[in-house]
Structure formats: structure tokens, C-alpha cells
Amino acid sequence: MKKSELVFIPSPGLSHLIPTVETAKLLLLRDSRLAVTVLLLPPIFKDTNAEIYVKTTSSNPTFSSRLKFIHLPHIQHSNTHFLEYFDVHIPNARREISNLLTKEQNPCLAAVVLDIFCTEFISVAAEFDLPAYLFFTGGAICLGLFQHLVSLRFDHNEDVTRYKNAEVDLPVPYFSLPVPAKVLPAVTVDEAFLPEIYLSHFKRFSEMKGVLINTFYDMEPYTVESLWSDDKTPEIYPVGPVLKVESKCFDEDDDVKKWLDDQPENSVVFLCFGTVSILDEKQVREIAKGLENCGSRFLWSLKKRENSELEREESEYFEGFLERTKGSGRVMGWAPQAAVLAHPAVGGFVSHCGWNSILESVWFGVPMATFPMHAEQQLNAFYLVKVLGMAEVITLDYQMDFTGEKPPESVGWEVIAGAIRRLMTSEGGSGMRRKAEEMGKKAREALVEGGTSYNALTLFIEDVMKNRD
């Protein structure tokens, strides 16, 4: 039997690593002719959760014989730009791919699948005459926007940095509505991030043989159709939602689960802002005051600042908030997000609008309130609110400042309380909840045999196997 091996090169961050590896596992479950080797770049920051995830996956007997992980060694670099961290690992990736090709083995190497930040690795694939595919961990809307900005910059010689904080709406071919310039990812328009480097990086998307996207057709039908009909975009395969939810559960004796079990159905609003964003003191206080005044039960996953303890934060930030809301709310550190969203008591989700969080919220039919902070999150928030109608607005264009050039933005408690109130009451929440539940049903239908994502994965496998002919 002819067998084929794929090499996946993901970004080391959990939000990229998990959907990439889970997609690889889907491929292995779908076709016994496939094997996968994952080249793991050293983490930018030590991440125990990523280490545990890789170790657990490696030892899973279902995949261990056909799924291998190779850790690339750490390399010192000048750190002049974020993308340099990835590019310096190209020689080591070349060596490992060469080793795989020189072994007389079955399966034989058939393709390389690259992360969005690893597009320069396409040169390695070309050296060995291997097709390269992109695994895009965001939504089709983000891919489409990047394609459009690349075209403006390189096909039309337009200075896209003029859109930074501009009060204009852009017609984007992949969107059914004009896109406000204020929701464009900062790395594409803000000179502080050297957008020319990012756009040059994204330009290489067009050299890929195909793009796997962690989305499903009914989530982004207009954009998917537009990408399919665009002759500048490689073949796209919407194969999502790719999630890992079964292991993100509560312990049996978890105190937070016990508290949730005691709350009425759809009565709790859950707040969680991802693994990267850390709120400043003023914003924490505004959120706390908003929660105290919104009238809803709440569960707040608050990432602690370095060397900080919740008891100290109580005196510095909350000024008695925890004591006053003891009966109606809980504040915790890390939370098993999928398990919380799956709980019947949770009826709303205040989110930073990272794509993985959006997919989890959709999967469990929980409507959202938008509090984007960086990357493409503002674009995602715009899409949720203005196109899908599945979210209330707290803010669409809040931007965390990573440069230290300006004081942090702050969203006032009145805005936060009002949005949560609308999200959780029958007047506002019921319509969005219905839409979220319907989208969750479509997400599940997309993955079963005959569904749109199931079929897209089939087409991808067929294309990979043709590479051996």
C-alpha cells in the first residue's frame, strides 16, 4: 500500500500548536496511509502546558506509531524582528527534512505543512521539490484580509500604513461589508511593527499549493466563496472547527465546578482574555466595577501579573470587590475554558476574540461580548458583531500597546456593564443565543461524514496522495 508522510511545522504557541497537531491527528484517523512528523521549534517562552500536550500526544497509542515529534535545538538570534525567531530555524528544519528523505522508508515524504509565521520555510520545500501547504490557524476573514493588504501594497504600491487609526471603511473583496480601518491588525499598518516585513511574509501565501483553514463553510460562507473564486489564492480547504475539548475538563472535586453546578441555567457570564493578554490595574478595576453593577452572576478568569498573588491584587485592584460579590461571582486564575463554556450555567462569554476561543464558544452555543486586544482580534470582533450578529459590543478597536509609547487604553465600567446586561437579558441575549446555538449545530454537521469540512479534508488527502504519483 502506497503511504505518504507529511511534515508539519507549527508555531510553538499553544494557540497555533494545538489546532495544528489536532488537524494532523484528524488526518491520521481518516486515512491509514498517512504518517506525520511535527518539527517543534523551541518555545519563545517556557510553556509547561505545551510540554504536557506534546508529551501526552506522543504517548497516545492511537497515534504513536504514525505521529512523531522532533524538537529543533534553540538558536541565538539578534531579535530584531518577531519573524526572525522563526526564520533562524530554517537550517535545522532543512537538515531534518533531508534526513527523512534520505531514509529508505515507507511512507515517503509527500508534503510540508507550514504555520503562518513559517512561510519562509517554503524555500526548504522547494529545495527538495516538495509541495508546501499552509495551515492557517485563524479564520478565512483574516486570510482574505491579508491577501487584500498584500495586493494593495505590492500590486498597487499603496502605503497601507496610512490606514493606522484612520476613520475610514475599506472595501475588501472577501467581506460582504466594508471593513473599518481601526480593526486592521496592527502588524499590517503600524510602523512600530515594521509591517513591510509582515506583508512580505504573507505575500508568500500565494506560493503554497493549498491552504488548510481552521474554519467551516457556514461560519464564513461569503469569504470562503470569495477565496475559492480568487485566482491569486491557492486552493483552500476549510477543515474546522479543529478543537481539543475533551481533556479540558474540571477535576471531580473542583470548587469552581461545584459553584457552577449550583447556578441556574444560562445565568453566568464567563470572562476570559486568552493566554497572552495581561490587563493593567485601571482596566481590571473598570471590569470589576462593571461586573458589580451589571446584575449578572459571573466567573472571571484573571491572569495574574508576574510575582502577583490574588490576595495582594484584592487590596491593590479590587478594593473589596471580591467580598462584596462573594455570593454572585467568582474570580480565578487559569480556567479550563472549554469546560466552562460547556457548562449549562454559562450563558455568555466576554472574550478577547481569539479565533480558537470563538470556535469554542460557537461549538457550545454561547453568545459573546467582544473585548479584543491585539493581533487579528479586532477584525474577528467586527465580524462577530456586524456580520454574524452573534456578539454584543464592549469594544471593537481596543488595542493593547506593546511598544510602551502611549498610556494604556481603558474601557469604562458603564460600557462593560451595559454590554453584559444586554448579552445576558432576554431582549438582547436570546437572539444572539439562538444564532450561536444554530452555528454550533452547523459546526458539528460540518465535521461528520458528508459535511463540508469532512469533504474538504478528503479533498486535501486526495491532493497529497497525488503528489506521490
TrEMBL record:
> GO: which molecular function terms?
glycosyltransferase activity
Task: State its Enzyme Commission number(s).
Answer: 2.4.1.-
Against SUPFAM superfamilies, the record matches this protein to:
UDP-Glycosyltransferase/glycogen phosphorylase (SSF53756)
- Per UniProt, which keywords does this protein have? Glycosyltransferase, Transferase
User: What's the top EC group for this one?
Assistant: transferase
Instruction: Tell me where on the tree of life, at the top rank, the source sits.
Output: Eukaryota
Q: Which InterPro entries match?
A: UDP-glycosyltransf_plant, UDP_glucos_trans, UDP_glycos_trans_CS
Pfam families in alphabetical order? UDPGT
Q: Is Glycosyltransferase tagged as a keyword?
A: yes
Query: Of which family is this protein a member?
Result: Belongs to the UDP-glycosyltransferase family.
Q: What is this protein called?
A: Glycosyltransferase
Q: Which organism is it from?
A: Salvia divinorum (Maria pastora)
